[in-house]
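Readers outside the structure-tokenisation community will struggle with the description of the input data as it stands. I therefore recommend that a typical entry be quoted early in the introduction. An entry of this sort, consisting of the sequence and the corresponding backbone structure tokens, reads as follows:
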Amino acid sequence: ADCAPCLMRRVLFQSRLEGNGREFESVKAAVDALSEGMDPDTPSVVIATDVHSRAYAALGSDDPYRRIKEEADEVAASYERMLEDAVESSDDPLRAAIMAAVVGNIMDFGAGSAIDDPHQFMSVFDGMMSQGLGHDDTDELREELDNVAGVVYMFDNCGESQLDKVLIRQLRRMGKRVVGVVRGAPILNDVTMEDALRIGMDEEVDRLLSTGHRLGRRPGGSRRRDTLMRADHSQGYGELRGHLGQEPRCAHSSYFEDEVRSGCHCDGRPDGHQRREDGQTEEVRLWKARLDRLS
């Protein structure tokens, strides 16, 4: 039930982004999809995928976030050199690179608890950097990285992905092979293949793959599974998400570096969302990286 207001807030936000006067049609399509699909046994990601897909169709747009994604990439790119310098001069380059990637997670437009305009990033950047990592498993992560050859890096938002480059470069300096994974079709401001190629991400990673879908599906493909298995580690949302291990059954342990003020406003959620006293939320990334969700 807590998902409903978050979904509707996003739908209204993206409908107004398009600005074609079809906000009512888009929201109505989303409400219909939500009422038809809302079920306690259905994963929220499946419901959200259908809601957004039908809202996009009613809106007559395959990507209402296109313009704001491009703006986010431009804004974030202006911080890239500064953060790269900070990593190079740091006594702990890996930790500094993780912080650089984590801070970009605030670019989650329309979430209601992050920023809604890329240019707002400038006003929150210094505060987030000084806040530091709310939950820091960097040392444990470092030990795991010593034992693997590569990482699967699952991209989240545009803008954030520009700062992900800083961490990806550090991982490659450590001798790790990096396989990047992007969304297979536009949804929210998530990175698609088009977005990744626009910012030159194909030149930053050893290989760039697509999930082949928006969210709530599990596309097949033994070739994609084999590629991900060879990478050993799975990483996303600006930080390492979990150890894939040598066999599918080993995809369990997770590393999360951030408690950033983004995500939904849900109270008492089992997935780690807690409301702050100031009304904001801190999303503690407790997602498990499961290989069957990627292959």
Notes: The chain has a mean pLDDT of 75. The two ends are 29 Å apart (CA to CA). The chain has ten helices and eight strands. The first strand starts at residue 150 and ends at 154.
